[in-house]
Amino acid sequence: MRERTRAVLAHQRFQRFIVGVILVNAVTLGLETFPSVVAHYGVLLTVVDHAALYVFAAELAAKIYVERSRFVRDPWNVFDFLIVAIAFAPATGGLSVLRALRILRALRLLSVVPSLRRVVSALLRAMPGMSSIVVLLALVLYVGAVMATKLYGTASPDRFGTLPTSLFTLYQTMTGDDWGNIAREVMERHPSAWIFFTIFILVCTFVILNLFMAVVVSAMDEESAEERAAAGESNANAELILRELAELRKEVAELRGRSPVE
User: Fold this and answer.
1) What angle do CA 86, 92, 97 make, to 5 degrees?
2) Contact predicate 57/49, CB 8 Å
3) Which of 30, 129, 139, 162 is spaced 20 to 30 A from 13 at the CA atom?
């Protein structure tokens, strides 16, 4: 029974069914944000939502039955369990905010779809390298904020009057949000301010952010290389088993040929 359940859970059709349930549930939760839709189809949306929840709960129960203690050793299983468990928490009184967390069930696609799972694994693998880049970015922001406060604090006190406001303004500049108007406002009093803003944007946007992408791409390459190596090892094991089976069949055939004919 346990092996049959394991085969059903691993079957491609069952995986596609779970993906379909996740997508349908995500759509229904989105439709619940429209009052007119809820007024006409509120009961149907609730039924679909509960049905999807029961499907997820049954899938998790089947996984626990099949994997037993190994269930908690897989981080993706723990992730799925927490996502589904949130939906069973009471959503009344002070816990009514948990109703909004039901949409987190859409994140189950990360654990069900292999390509998304590889991306998340690569991002987690890249975290150590990204932490160093975050420190570098924070250092550049801090140095730039101190310089901007001292240079342009009097020219634009609303944007660079204090260190916190300078940090926020430079963060806004780094994201490219309305940085042109910020620069022009300062350049009315300091025409050479364009040099500071140009260098700051070049360093933050074209250097540090590219470093982020380089670290993530490198981690994804490592993840893909490990998967290819694991696939190659499994293929080699399969070929070895097939070769041994062929040799056993040959030996059995030879033994039958040597046996006396009745």
Assistant:
1) 55
2) no
3) 30
Structural domains of the chain sorted by starting position, each given as residue range(s) with its CATH number in brackets: 2-112 (1.20.120.350), 117-249 (1.10.287.70)
Within 13 Å and on the Cβ side, how many CA atoms surround 148? 34
Nearest to 5 by CA among 64, 66, 76, 54: 66
Which pTM value belongs to this model?
Answer: 0.63
- Max CA separation in the chain (angstroms): 112
> What confidence tens digit (pLDDT) does each residue in 161-176 have?
899 999 999 999 888 8
51 residue type, one letter: A
